[in-house]
Write a structure and sequence with these properties.
7 helices; Aminopeptidase; alpha+beta
Length: about 250
């Protein structure tokens, strides 16, 4: 696959929203307001796949008030098919700045024999959680573990075991005809040993048995080693996601 359509990008984004559910969510004029606490940007931002209102400025104000009421930062997530398309410009006008950028990468899953060293389970287990949480920022650990309990099925957790311990993790969640990759992590003392590649290969083998036509992930665009790994595995860039927050220098509350 070298090109994706708008319909495919929308499906992939919906699948990512499904795969990482916020602890609190509310539909506001079609947008999905999400709040969870902790450091997860997706679980604490507004998904902008759909807009059903007639005044996006008013909807932004409603969201800002909702965030202020709970002491949360107002954060919007946009992508190539965001609705309405003028939203990034509206956010700039209100003093928002573009923060972290992620790249959505996709491929068609290819059937294969999974590596024998990778375990597959339908729920996270203690060793899997130990490895995953050790490799994410402290402000994400507690909330992310709670989110993992709410991830919908069909799903599968993958752990690469070497020398008696889990050294790499991944999660795959099925939705909207897509298999979404989440929670890819490798222990810092075991990197560059092929463990992340092994869990990704096992994940793809499992995804190929599901009713999907797309395998997708989102990676921080500046994470060059991860981007290169996914490229070697056949993933190609399909969309760009951006997180927008209010610039404190504007004097407006975030």
């Amino acid at each position: 696959m070298t090109d994706t359509t708008g319909e495919q990008r929308i499906r992939v984004e919906r699948a990512h929203v499904l795969a990482w559910p916020a602890l609190r969510a509310e539909v506001i004029d079609g947008w999905l307001w999400r709040a969870s606490g902790g450091g997860s940007q997706r679980a604490n931002s507004v998904s902008t796949v759909d807009f059903t209102g007639d005044d996006p400025r008013r909807a932004i104000e409603t969201i800002e008030a909702r965030c202020q009421a709970i002491g949360a930062v107002a954060r919007f997530q946009t992508f190539d098919e965001t609705q309405p398309a003028i939203l990034p410009e509206l956010l700039r006008q209100r003093g928002y700045v573009c923060g972290e950028e992620t790249t959505t990468m996709v491929k068609s899953p290819v059937p294969a024999e999974p590596p024998a060293e990778v375990e597959v389970r339908d729920a996270a287990w203690p060793e899997w959680l130990d490895t995953y949480t050790a490799e994410i920022t402290p402000n994400r650990r507690t909330i992310n573990v709670r989110i993992l309990d709410t991830v919908p099925a069909p799903r599968a957790f993958f752990g690469c075991r070497r020398d008696g311990r889990i050294i790499a993790t991944a999660l795959c969640v099925i939705g909207y005809g897509c298999a979404v990759v989440e929670c890819v992590a490798a222990r810092s003392d075991c990197r560059r040993q092929g463990a992340a590649r092994a869990v990704m290969q096992a994940l793809e083998a499992w995804a190929a048995t599901q009713k999907v036509d797309l395998l997708a992930l989102q990676v921080v665009s500046s994470n060059t080693p991860a981007v290169r790994l996914y490229q070697r595995l056949g993933y190609v860039a399909a969309a760009t996601n951006r997180f927008w927050v209010r610039d404190p220098a504007t004097g407006a509350s975030a």
